[in-house]
C-alpha cells in the first residue's frame, strides 16, 4: 500500500484516544507507520520527537532495535498517560514537546525521554494523576 500523502493524513479524523495496544504488532513491537499516523507525524518527525536519528525507521533492523523500540514506546506511553487531562492525543503531544516541567528544572517530557529519564516522567505523571502537586 503506498504511503498516504500529507493532505490525506490531515483529512483523516484524529483518534479520540491514543491506545498503545492498538499500535503494537503480534510480537509487541511498535508499528512505526501506525504510530506516526496516529500522531499525524511523518516517520522522521516521530524519530526526532523520540530522540532518534531521522533515518532509524528506514531499515527494519534499526526500526526493530531494542533502543528504537524502547524510546518510541516510552514516548507513546507518556502521551497516552497525559491525553486524558491534556484533551486528546494532539494536545498530549504538544504538552510532551513544549511544556516545561518545573519539577525537572523546566525541561520538557521530550527532553527528559531523550536523555533516558522516561521513568521519571512516568512517575511524575502518575504523581499528578493521584492528586499530587506539580
Oligomer: single chain
Helix-strand category:
mainly alpha
Main beta sheet: none
Q: What are the segments in which pLDDT stays under 50 over at least 5 consecutive residues?
A: none
Share of helix, binned: 55-70%
| Whole-number total of structural domains | 1
Q: From N to C, what is the helix and strand string?
A: HHHHHHHH
Summarize the structure.
The chain is an all-alpha fold and 134 residues long.
Walkthrough of the structure:
The protein has 8 helices and no strands. It has one domain (6-129). Helix content is 55%, strand content 0%. Helix 5 (66-86) runs parallel beside helix 8 (118-129). The model has no long low-confidence stretch (mean pLDDT 88). It is globular. The chain is mostly helical and 134 residues long.
List keywords for this structure.
134 residues, mainly alpha, 8 helices, 55% helix, globular
Summarize the SSE layout with pairings.
Elements: H1 6-11, H2 32-38, H3 43-50, H4 60-63, H5 66-86, H6 89-98, H7 109-114, H8 118-129
Helix pairs in contact: 3-5, 5-6, 5-8
Amino acid at each position: 500500500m503506498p504511503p498516504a500523502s500529507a493532505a490525506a493524513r490531515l483529512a483523516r479524523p484524529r483518534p479520540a484516544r491514543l491506545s498503545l495496544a492498538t499500535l503494537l504488532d503480534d510480537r509487541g513491537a511498535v508499528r512505526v507507520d501506525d504510530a506516526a499516523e496516529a500522531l499525524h507525524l511523518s516517520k522522521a518527525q516521530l524519530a526526532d520527537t523520540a530522540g532518534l536519528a531521522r533515518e532509524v525507521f528506514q531499515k527494519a533492523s534499526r526500526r526493530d532495535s531494542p533502543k528504537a523500540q524502547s524510546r518510541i514506546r516510552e514516548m507513546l506511553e507518556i502521551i497516552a498517560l497525559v491525553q486524558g487531562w491534556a484533551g486528546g492525543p494532539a494536545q498530549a503531544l504538544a504538552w510532551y514537546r513544549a511544556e516545561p516541567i518545573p519539577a525537572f528544572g523546566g525541561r520538557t517530557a521530550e527532553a527528559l525521554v531523550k536523555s533516558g529519564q522516561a521513568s521519571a516522567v512516568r512517575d511524575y505523571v502518575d504523581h499528578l494523576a493521584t492528586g499530587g502537586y506539580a
